[in-house]
Specification:
heterodimer, A: mainly alpha, Cytochrome Bc1 Complex, Chain D, domain 2, 4 helices, B: about 425 residues, alpha/beta, FAD/NAD(P)-binding domain, four-stranded parallel sheet, 11 helices
């Protein structure tokens, strides 16, 4: 609990919808079906853990709008709201 | 849970009865919560590991009869001679190293009231919550003439392993010019695009090694997953070699004769040199034993918690579950498993479940360098897991071959990634 609170305080600049906790926000756990959770996996699909929060948000929004071309991420990004994207990006940014 | 407790009091059972009879959230009693997961496939093994990650205080037992798991995704490439079965096989060493008790046993009984699972050797495993991930069983007897003995001559190869190798050996032994017949069942069944990927990779094998041969696909349906993509690829890659016969053109197989490898439809008989019968299916056997399967043979669940609609305290994930719009795929099973683990970790602490969002992505190979995909995003809606409007869909029909080649590479990368997460 104390750790959760500390993390929450550290992320006050992020939208209120983003609850910082160890538990992945809705949708985040599914990403590791394709984005390797482990660095030992060789894949052209990049790991999300530790990526810049804003970069994940921008990529998802660009996939969703079609500004950035993709094979499947365009179809997947369309299923997420801005709030959900913010939460997922914030969570992955804190993962290692 | 609340209704159950009222029921409990109504029955007038002494309040001093075993806590296991009707457990409060385990943490409320000061004990470590015990979760039993039955089935060590993409759903069960993922769930067991995700439970330990969510809360290392949870005592997780994974019940699995086999020491080695043989993955179905990419097993069509084994049948087509593009891959060896060993590339499909994984052990539970790393799962056990997470602190999960791996019980190599068959679950033979479930007592949902007493909350315990009985194993083949009589061991009784008490649980606070049970997760069933039994995958599929073949519905023997649903197709007249197709029983376990018939499957030795006309393999289904729909549970990967010996059957996969058997079908491959039969194709290898067949003379050039032979007729291969594949039959696909009515919905629902494991891996909706699977029969068509298999047809593609068998056609690829025939085109490469036995070009005078022919493949007929007898289908109990008039439509199937990624249909336009498959059909346009077949026209391009396998013209004259692969013929798809839909339900409306006499594709529905009504019986088989294993002795002569004959498939009978309302419109005629097809005697095959090699016959691959993909038969009707149902949830794995323990689902029926536990009372979580309905008359359809599959398991209705709550779309938020994955808890059975028929038995409290039992969650069902993966192919066995009726998961609304989510297909019976390994990706979906893994996605459901992680969601279910998070929910169960909350429920055992007395916390409310959060509303999930799930993803599916399924790649199919039409040729070694030709991949296509379907993707979807799902959320609970009106009591079902429904596709989020505007999301998902299949690869574009007008994509260039370079894109198909990229998707073939991504398909293999997906397999490496997901099997590492589940078993690595």
């Amino acid at each position: 609990m104390r750790r959760t609170l500390a993390a929450a305080i550290g992320l006050v600049s992020i939208a209120a919808a983003v609850v910082a906790s160890a538990e992945p926000p809705a949708g985040a756990a599914a990403c590791s079906g394709c984005h390797p959770a482990s660095a030992r996996v060789t894949s052209p699909v990049r790991r999300l853990a530790g990526l810049d929060r804003a970069a994940i948000v921008r990529a998802m929004q660009d996939f969703r709008s079609g500004q950035r071309s993709a094979t499947v991420m365009d179809r997947i990004a369309k299923g997420f709201t801005n709030e959900e994207i913010q939460a997922i990006a914030a969570w992955y940014a804190t993962q290692r | 849970m609340k209704a159950g407790r009222r029921e409990f009091l109504k029955l007038g059972v002494a309040a001093t009865a075993s806590a296991a009879l009707f457990p409060l959230p385990a943490f409320a009693q000061g004990a470590a919560p015990r979760i039993v997961v039955v089935g060590g496939g993409f759903a069960g093994a993922s769930c067991a590991r995700a439970l330990r990650q969510a809360d290392p205080r949870i005592v997780v037992t994974l019940v699995e009869a086999n020491a080695t798991f043989t993955a179905c995704p990419f097993s069509n490439a084994v049948i087509g001679g593009l891959r060896e079965l060993s590339a499909q096989q994984f052990t539970y060493e790393r799962v056990a190293a997470d602190g999960i008790v791996v019980a190599r046993a068959t679950a033979t009984a479930v007592n949902a009231q007493a909350r315990s699972v009985t194993l083949g050797d009589g061991t009784r495993l008490p649980y606070d919550r049970l997760v069933l991930a039994p995958g599929i069983d073949i519905r023997w007897g649903a197709l007249p003439g197709y029983d376990e003995a018939a499957a030795a001559r006309m393999p289904h190869a729909w549970r990967a392993g010996e059957q996969t190798v058997l079908l491959r050996r039969q194709l290898e032994a067949m003379a050039d010019g032979g007729l291969v017949v594949l039959s696909a069942p009515a919905n629902p069944f494991r891996c909706p695009p699977g029969p068509y990927e298999r047809a593609s990779l068998i056609a690829h094998y025939l085109k490469t090694k036995k070009p005078k041969s022919k493949l007929i696909v007898l289908d109990a349906k008039d439509a199937f997953s990624k249909q336009r993509l498959f059909q346009s690829a077949w026209a391009e890659l396998y013209p004259g070699l692969l013929e798809w016969v839909p339900l409306s053109k006499g594709g529905n197989v009504t019986s088989v004769d294993a002795a002569t490898r004959t498939l009978v439809t309302d419109f005629g008989r097809h005697q095959a040199a090699v016959a691959n019968v993909i038969p009707p299916q149902k949830a794995g056997r323990i689902a029926d034993i536990a009372g979580v399967a309905d008359r359809s043979g599959w398991c209705p669940i709550d779309p938020v918690t994955f808890e059975s609609k028929l038995q409290a305290g039992i969650h069902v994930i993966g192919d066995a579950a009726i998961a609304g719009a989510m297909p019976k795929s390994a990706f979906a099973a893994n996605s459901q498993a992680k969601t279910c683990a998070a929910v169960v970790a909350r429920l055992v602490t007395g916390a409310a479940p959060s509303v999930p969002k799930l993803i599916n992505t399924c790649y199919s190979l039409v040729a070694p360098d030709y991949g296509i995909s379907v993707a979807g995003v799902y959320a609970p809606s009106s009591g079902q897991l429904a596709e989020v409007p505007g999301s998902g869909g299949v690869s574009p029909s007008d994509a260039p071959r370079a894109t198909r080649a990229v998707e073939a590479v991504l398909a293999e990368a997906w397999f490496r990634t997901i099997t590492d997460e589940v078993f690595g």
